[in-house]
Design a protein that fits this description.
By secondary structure, the protein is mainly beta. The chain starts with 18 loop residues before the first strand and ends in a 7-residue tail after the last strand.
């Protein structure tokens, strides 16, 4: 029997031998194709939790053809690092990097949710209750969030 998948909310930087069952809800490429290009993704698990993942150019050649937005996967072995850049695409305090031992297998996992929008009351924006360093997808365009409620 296979190992039970880890949950995104349990990722705390203590282990890199993660097994995740995820849907790629957002996928974009940065850089020059076939040169210094990298893939950035947002994964969602069965509980709707999200985490940012990055596949740098040295690993991208192996996996680029496998990445499809809205497809579901079983993935193993990532490097886990603090999500402390100037801007973040997910609230999770960690993000994942693909490394040489990362394994990806497309799987038919219909129970995994699709992208979920989290709208907030306009009053929260006026009151300044938002995360200033969090980027979100607004109708297909990445932009700085001004409408993200701070819990």
């Amino acid at each position: 029997m296979g190992r039970i998948p880890d949950k995104i909310k349990s990722i705390d930087g203590s282990k890199e031998t993660l097994k995740l069952t995820v849907r790629i809800t957002d996928l974009w490429f940065i850089g020059t194709p076939n040169k210094s290009e990298q893939a950035k993704m947002v994964f969602v698990d069965s509980e709707g939790d999200q985490i940012h993942a990055v596949c740098k150019s040295d690993q991208l050649k192996s996996w680029k053809a496998n990445f499809k937005e809205n497809s579901t996967y079983v993935m193993h072995n990532f490097k886990v690092v603090k999500n402390d850049g100037q801007f973040r695409v997910c609230e999770h305090v960690y993000k994942l990097f693909f490394i040489g031992v990362t394994v990806i297998r497309e799987a038919d996992l219909h129970e995994l949710p699709f992208k979920e929008f989290r709208f907030v009351e306009f009053g929260n924006v006026v009151a300044g209750n938002f995360v200033a360093d969090l980027l979100v997808d607004i109708i297909g365009v990445v932009d700085q969030v001004l409408f993200r409620h701070v819990s």
